[in-house]
């Protein structure tokens, strides 16, 4: 098993193999009456949060708010960085990147 930065590879439970980021959209004040919601309607703003994952040693921090869908890529990146999550390019992504594959 490979070690990186003092983190050891671990056996994983089937439900904790993936790292999950949750995007939540506000739905308040869209209904016809107070405290009512319109089904399948939401604002273009909300929060992004990283879910807890004991296998990966992820403890969730505060949700990060966004005010526009255009902000989502940057907010997701911020959440990954804040939780020290490192992404590795997949096979299709590597053809766009200039990376040393030693």
The fraction of residues in strands falls at 15-25%
Per DSSP, the total helix count is 2
Strand order of the largest sheet: 3-4-5
Radius of gyration: 18 Å
What structural category characterises the helix and strand content?
alpha+beta
pLDDT < 50 runs, ≥5 residues: none
What is the number of beta strands? 5
What general form does the structure show? Answer: extended
Number of spatially distinct domains: 1
Q: Gap between N and C termini, in Å?
A: 18 Å
Q: What is the chains' assembly state?
A: single chain
Q: Portion of residues in helices?
A: 10-25%
The overall pLDDT average reads: 86
Order of helices and strands: EEEEEHH
Specify the biggest β-sheet.
3 strands, antiparallel
Strand and helix layout:
Layout: E1 3-4, E2 7-8, E3 21-25, E4 46-50, E5 64-66, H1 72-82, H2 91-94
Antiparallel strand pairs: 1-2, 3-4, 4-5
Notable characteristics:
alpha+beta; 15% helix; three-stranded antiparallel sheet; 102 residues; single chain
Protein architecture, described:
This protein has 102 residues and is an alpha+beta fold. The chain has one domain. The chain has 2 helices and 5 strands. The protein has helices at 72-82, 91-94; strands at 3-4, 7-8, 21-25, 46-50, 64-66. The two termini are 18 Å apart.
């Amino acid at each position: 098993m490979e070690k990186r930065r003092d983190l050891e590879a671990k056996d994983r439970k089937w439900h904790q193999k993936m790292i999950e980021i949750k995007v939540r959209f506000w739905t308040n004040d869209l209904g016809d009456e107070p405290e009512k919601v319109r089904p399948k309607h939401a604002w273009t703003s909300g929060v992004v949060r990283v879910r807890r994952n004991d296998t990966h040693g992820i403890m969730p921090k505060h949700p990060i708010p966004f005010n526009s869908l255009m902000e989502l890529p940057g907010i997701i990146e911020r959440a990954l960085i804040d939780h020290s999550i490192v992404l590795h390019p997949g096979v299709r992504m590597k053809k766009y990147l200039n990376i040393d594959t030693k």
